[in-house]
Amino acid sequence: MSVRNFTDLPPLSLYIHIPWCLKKCPYCDFNSHENRHDVLPEQQYVDALLADLQQELPEIWGRQIVSIFIGGGTPSLFSASAIDSLLSGVRALTAASPTVEITMEANPGTFEQKKFRDFREAGINRLSIGVQSFNDQCLNALGRVHDSGEAERAFVMAREAGFDNINIDLMYGLPEQSLTMAHADLSTAINLQPEHISYYQLTLEPNTLFASQPPALPHDDIRWDMHTQGVQLLSEHGFKRYEVSAYARDNNTCQHNQNYWLYGDYVGIGAGAHGKLSMAATGEIVRRWKRKHPTQYLEHAHSEQRIGGQHTVTAEDTALDFLMNALRLTDGFTIPLFQLHTGMALHQWQTVINKAIDDGLLETKGVSLSTTEHGFDYLNELLERFIPDEAEHRYPVIPLLQSKD
Q1: CB 109: neighbour CB atoms within 10 A?
Q2: What value does the mean pLDDT take over residues 117-146?
Q3: Domain that holds residue 324
């Protein structure tokens, strides 16, 4: 297996994690912590984030930030002044373009008209609203703090606040949800005319309340019907599916998540935030994550102790690490891009690729490699083919995305 040789470095994004939320949802496996106090340590946390970023600068010096994503938790719990202070600090420390895509996650229960107008003025230009359902029965089963009316009003207020690039997060396969209910949910979202919809199935993740106390979910066949119904309905209304669960109108794809999926680099700051950086000098790709608990993160944010751990991606693991995300894209990726973003040649895995093509899981289009419709149904099995065949090999658990969008 050859070593890496970067002729150029991939695009660089910035992920900022704000871990607090109003209430921990029973299905959520993200690093979020219920706010049990009336006042959040906003200024202390903003200072910690900027100190964290400043310590990352030597490894990204001179590289332009192509996108910023503020996720959580519920970042919209923070005041507009805190977000403004945070983004001002980021701009002072990095080479971020004034027009860079800056996404913030928000939940309907945190919407106030003036507050969100101020978020827009602070520089947030893309909003991702965590609706999950427009059905009160489903929202109650999910433990959400808002109702259907608040969800719709939140979208209207976001428009009135000046946001012209909005994503709606929506789930299907919810407890006791019928096919008709799923159709009504998606129709409501479409009728609001957002630029982007993330439509994905509820899964019972380990270490969540739903995992230990599973709710009654629709049968597998019903959930599959919800999926196929959703794909068709979104297509009929001009939403192009560009990733397993992401749909956009008028090319309003999420630039930040596309950088994840195409193995771009990203700095992660904040409690539990993950980052991935390519090192041209050493030929290494390093994944690093920060301390998860907010109290510990705040205590150590100004030192190396803020780092929870790190892992160097081996040459043998490179294909799997890249393909875990890139094969989620409906258009796949170009083979030259693999070499550019990994520093390695894809032909080293050609035997595995050829077998997957023969089995109808992958296909080539010119210089592009992509997952077939059949392959999407067996994506996990497809990826397993790229795991190095070593008896003692254990691949580290790495989140596909830090953002829910």
Answers
A1: 19
A2: 94
A3: 318-384
- State yes or no: pLDDT of 263 exceeds 90: yes
Q: Check whether 404 has a pLDDT greater than 70.
A: no
- In whole angstroms, give the CA distance from residue 166 to residue 231: 19
3-state DSSP: the chain helix, strand, coil percent, rounded to 5?
40, 25, 35
Q: Give phi and psi for 152, each to the nearest 5.
A: -70, -40
Question: Cis ω on the peptide bond leading into residue 123 (within 30° of 0)?
Answer: no
Compute the distance between CA of residue 350 and CA of residue 347 in angstroms, rounded to an integer: 5
Contacts of 43 (CB under 8 A, 6+ apart): 82, 85
Residue 146 neighbours by CB under 8 Å, 6+ apart: 107, 108, 109, 139, 154
Q: How confident is the model at residue 396 (pLDDT cuts 50, 70, 90)?
A: very low
Residue 394 near residue 320, CB atoms below 8 Å: no
Question: Contact, 78 vs 110, CB < 8 A?
Answer: no
- Residue 29 gets the label, from left (phi > 0), alpha (psi -120 to 50) or beta, of alpha
287 in any annotated domain: no
User: What are 92's two structure tokens?
Assistant: 């002072």
Please, are residues 87 and 75 in contact by the beta-carbon 8 Å criterion? no
192 shares a domain with 48: yes
- 139 and 219 assigned to the same domain: yes
The answer on 194 and 326 residing in a single domain is: no
What is the CATH number for 359?
1.10.10.10
pLDDT in tens, 299-324: 999 999 999 999 999 999 999 899 99
Q: Which of 186, 258, 231 is nearest to 403 (CA)?
A: 258
